[in-house]
Design goal:
This protein has 278 residues and is mostly helical. It has helices at residues 2-12, 17-36, 39-66, 75-94, 102-108, 121-127, 134-152, 158-184, 192-201, 216-224, 232-239, 246-272; strands at 69-70, 73-74. 69% of the residues lie in helices and 1% in strands. Strand 1 and strand 2 form a beta hairpin. The longest helix is centred in the first third of the chain and has 28 residues, at 39-66.
């Protein structure tokens, strides 16, 4: 059975970029049609996402009404970090939300349907769901970032904008990779849901500078569970361009490698899938 999957995978690897873009567009249209049939649910969930982010914004105001700065980071720099993290987390929310369903599909045995289609298994599974309400988080993050940007006085130039886009994509790759790793544990663990929840909760630390952590926790959030790369290190390329740390410079390369590693781990789990469910 694994040999047949390998043969299908080799065939799928020959598919071009335009083929996958075309397929994704068709799947996305069908997903939108499905969601629009439950408009009330869509509106309520989107409104809930916005309220969650408003609450996060309010927490910053409360904290900084009592403390002028946190380890040298003032209100607007922390707000920039918060907005940056919201934008960086949007791709995993919108495009990779189906990872939350992976364990249920594996457990029931329904995941088998993804293994025998003439298309990359990872792409096919992930592309089935687009979480539209994540766009509310994206626009709230954009607004927060612009608000903080204006008060900090960062120049708006083409190189700065390009740098911002590159490092936002970089930050997104780290969170996507973390969730890929967490989701794929379901191929070996029965209680993989708790792994997903724990890993997702770690994102809350992304809105804080890694410099406030010390010792083991700084090492943990930098090298083992690289939450610091979701906002802190990438944002330094914009906030402090004259003193960019080595980890910030290396972040794009590390992010691409980390995502590739998570993809390989996810696909390795697919090869271990025994098709029986539980």
């Amino acid at each position: 059975m694994n040999a047949s999957i390998s043969a299908i995978e080799k065939k799928n690897n020959k598919r071009g970029f335009r083929f996958y873009v075309s397929i994704y567009r068709k799947i996305l249209i069908q997903d939108f049609k499905s969601k629009m049939s439950y408009r009330a649910d869509f509106i309520i969930s989107t409104f809930g996402m916005i309220l969650t982010n408003v609450a996060g914004f309010a927490s910053f105001m409360i904290i900084f009404s009592n403390f002028p700065s946190i380890n040298g980071w003032d209100y607007y720099h922390m707000l920039f970090l918060y907005g940056f993290s919201l934008i960086a987390l949007t791709p995993v929310q919108c495009f990779f939300d189906n990872n939350w369903n992976l364990r249920f599909m594996v457990r029931s045995g329904d995941f088998i349907k993804y293994c025998f289609r003439p298309i990359n298994v990872f792409f096919y599974f992930i592309s089935e769901v687009f979480d539209v309400k994540g766009l509310g988080q994206f626009f709230f993050g954009i607004g927060t970032l612009i608000y903080a940007w204006a008060h900090i006085g960062i120049p708006v130039t083409v190189p700065v904008i390009i740098t911002l886009i590159v490092y936002l994509i970089t930050a997104s790759l780290f969170m996507i990779a973390l969730m890929n790793f967490a989701a794929a544990t379901c191929f070996w663990l029965q209680g993989s849901g708790s792994v997903m929840v724990i890993m997702f909760r770690f994102k809350d630390f992304a809105k804080y500078p890694a410099s406030i952590f010390h010792g083991f926790f700084k090492f943990l959030f930098t090298f083992l569970i690289p939450i610091a790369f979701i906002a802190y290190y990438p944002s330094l390329a914009i906030l402090d361009p004259d003193h960019i740390p080595v980890l910030t410079i290396l972040a794009p390369v590390i992010g691409i490698f980390f995502f590739w590693l998570s993809y390989k781990f996810w696909m390795f789990g697919v090869k271990r899938y025994d098709f029986t469910g539980s």
